[in-house]
Write a structure and sequence with these properties.
437 residues; mainly beta; Porin; 14-stranded antiparallel beta barrel; 4 helices
């Protein structure tokens, strides 16, 4: 048992040492290697530690101490074609990311879990000389969730789970702006790069329910209410000329952002031994994210304003994203080839959160179909001191996803850009299971 505790403590250290997470694209991929291979359909099965995110109620039916760490590399390439420019512009982003989950059961009735993950993030980064620089050069949203959860088995067939989210978020927006200062003795236009960097912390909640009608049929659901974050930070301009202008100094800026509410309903059916079919429907309240807006509080001394005789009209900056609620449909198939080997496949349809004619460079979300494939091992783990001694269970999962976004042409005034995208994701998950507390 001492060796097991040493290994567990080492794994917990690895989990706790990788806390800051980022992602590109708003929820394009999953947080678990196994679930990614299933196309995201997991709310009704929820039988490993990643249930902390997908459906906390599933932990009440689990047993033992489970640890799951997932490492994945998503790559998204966005292309914008402007009619009068011969070469398309690209925003291409890829990063090595991770998510972590730990859970345990108490007397096969109560489940406890902890997760560290980033479910809501996006980023676009366009060339600084591109045609749409007056709309956006860089837009970035990063979130970090730390979620403790608890689940209880109410009966042999029913469990519920609740959790609390400790959310940390930061937002960046950079674009090009043109000023004219007649009062400064020149009617020339001055070009400046406007950059806002804001952050906030907040608290959210999650609830889940799981109905285990039989060993072959389950129904599960998850609900997350929306969370409004009040962000604050610094803003500054970088002028192409007049380097010493006081309007370029760092200034306070405020913003707000709403993490959307989510409803998920999942069904799991096992028609044959070793074969699981899963179907999930998810509704996300993206319309809660009404605007991408920043309010600047200029920190000018009165004598400086009197000297220049002006206060530029840049107090409010932002764009209307015109977002709408979206539906995701997720289908997954898992088949156990051998006692310890399973193959998986999945399909995800994600509707665009933006009317196709109003797609903006800040958030060029496209309707997407995603195909997923994976293979996993779920069997005994042996001691490194004694190769014949099993110290628990080991899981290894690998997956690959490829997205097929639908091309869309924006009808924004003076910016009729056609957007195309290419998305893929490759990842690995590793997990351990030990005896119950």
């Amino acid at each position: 048992m001492g060796k097991k505790i040493v290994i567990l403590l080492l794994l917990l250290f690895i989990v706790s040492s990788s806390c800051f997470l980022e992602a590109s694209g708003f929820m394009p991929f999953e947080l678990s290697a196994r679930v990614a291979a299933l196309g995201g359909a997991f709310a009704a099965l929820a039988d490993d530690a990643s249930a902390v995110f997908y459906n906390p109620a599933g932990l009440a039916f689990s047993s033992g101490i489970m640890i799951r760490t997932n490492i994945y590399y998503p790559k998204t390439t966005l292309t914008a074609e402007y009619p009068t420019f011969p070469t398309p512009y690209q925003s291409s982003l890829g990063r090595l990311l991770s998510s972590h989950f730990v859970s345990t059961s108490i007397k096969n009735r109560i489940g406890l879990g902890l997760g560290v993950f980033a479910p809501n993030s996006m980023e676009t980064y366009w060339p600084e000389n591109w045609t749409g620089r007056a709309f956006s050069i860089q837009s970035k949203l990063n979130t970090l969730y730390i979620r403790p959860v608890a689940a209880i088995k109410i009966s042999k067939f029913l469990s519920i789970g609740i959790g609390m989210d400790f959310i940390s978020s930061d937002v960046t927006w950079k674009y090009e702006r043109i000023f004219t200062f007649q009062e400064m003795g020149s009617g020339d236009s001055l070009t400046a790069t406007s950059e806002s960097n804001v952050s906030a912390k907040g608290i959210g909640y999650v609830a889940g329910i799981l109905l285990k009608i039989s060993e072959n049929f389950r129904i599960g659901g998850r609900y997350q209410p929306k969370v409004k974050l009040d962000l604050s930070g610094q803003h500054f301009f970088i002028f192409s000329r007049l380097r010493d202008t006081p309007f370029g100094i760092s200034q306070k800026v405020n913003s707000s952002l709403t993490m959307p509410q989510e409803y998920v309903l999942g069904i799991m059916y096992s028609p044959l031994r070793g074969l699981n079919l899963q179907l999930d429907f998810q509704r996300s309240g993206m319309s809660d994210i009404k605007q991408w807006e920043f309010d600047i509080d200029p920190q000018f001394y009165e004598e400086i304003e009197n000297y220049y005789g002006t206060r530029p009209d840049y107090i409010n900056q932002g764009v209307d994203l015109n977002l709408r609620d979206i539906t995701r449909i997720m289908l997954g198939v898992e088949y156990r080839l051998r006692k310890f080997i399973a193959v998986r496949a999945g399909y995800t349809y994600q509707k665009s959160a933006v009317n196709s004619q109003m797609i903006h460079p800040v958030f060029p979300d496209l309707e997407t179909n995603i195909l997923s494939f994976g293979i996993g091992y779920d069997g005994p783990a042996f001691s490194i001191w004694d190769y014949d001694e099993s110290i628990g269970g080991l899981t290894l999962d690998i997956f690959f996803q490829y997205g097929f976004p639908r091309n869309s042409t924006s009808a924004l005034p003076d910016f009729p850009v056609t957007y195309q995208a290419n998305r893929w994701n490759l990842g690995l998950g590793i997990g351990f299971t030990f005896g119950s507390l």
